[in-house]
Amino acid sequence: MPQKTFLKQDIYQYRSIGEAINQSFTILRSHGFSLIGAMLKVSGVLAGAYFIFGYLSQQELMGNLESPNFGGGLSSFFTLTQLLNVLLSLLFSFLAQMAVYAWIRAAQEQEEAPQLNQVWKYIGSRIPTLLGVGLALIVVYGLLVALFVSMGAAAAILVFVLLIPFLYVFVRLGLFFPALILEDNRLSALRRSWNLVKEEWFSTFGFFIVLGIISYVLMIVVSIPFLVAAGAIAYFQLGESQGFESIFLSDAYFMANNISGVLTVFLNALLAGVGSSVWFGSLVDKKESVHIKKQIAEAAEEHNQTEQEGEY
Predict the structure, then answer these.
(1) Which phi and psi (to 5°) does residue 212 adopt?
(2) Whose CA is closest to 197, among 163, 166, 168?
(3) At what angle do helices 80-108 and 251-288 cross, to 10 degrees?
(4) How far apart are CA 5 and CA 131, in angstroms?
């Protein structure tokens, strides 16, 4: 008999952009709570740290703006607290998305909902590769920033010249993370993504644009209730005499902004993880005919079992 899996939807089946988006939301409807649980277990500590440092960085920024010695400039936005907040945001988003890939892989290999140790197994074994790739990206980013700073006004021309090749490479390597977690790849996941997106660059770019728009709209929808509630609380606390602009400088608004920030990062990681997994599986099937091979193998297995039962 074909192996039963907890993930009812087969991601390794070629789909158009619209079908892939629909399949992503089908997976979310069926397994959303289990996915969210795995993400919370894996990245919950970082989410809490991001929330705390987000609030502290806002307080620090407001303190700098209200200080009589404030001289302005970008230095006020690049303090240690601000930088730690940005770093925690990236780590939180990154680890949450890795949890999605790991959960999907584990859910394809067993009949029960994946447990934390099963999810973490696929993340932990890839940490050296992730650190290596991350370090390389930091070096490249640092070199580019140094180049832009040294060029001054000419940096705008350099950005224009590098925009298209950067976008091309970014899309070609856009499936690196699902290739790293969903398959037994390490650094070869870079080559895997590069080859899968070959001749599928425009469709892959279109898929991520559509997914990004949907994610952006949903993040706005999630944020609005918190910000409106915070604005109302601040308005009644401060009173009309404080002025409308004071609402956006209140603790209530800062707190709501941090809560919505954590939720939107979490939501974006969830959608990006599921969506890119589905698109990865779609391209794998298109180029390697995984789905039809699986159907043939399952049909042959059922046929052999029927013949064996008939012998008795």
Answers:
(1) -65, -40
(2) 168
(3) 40
(4) 31
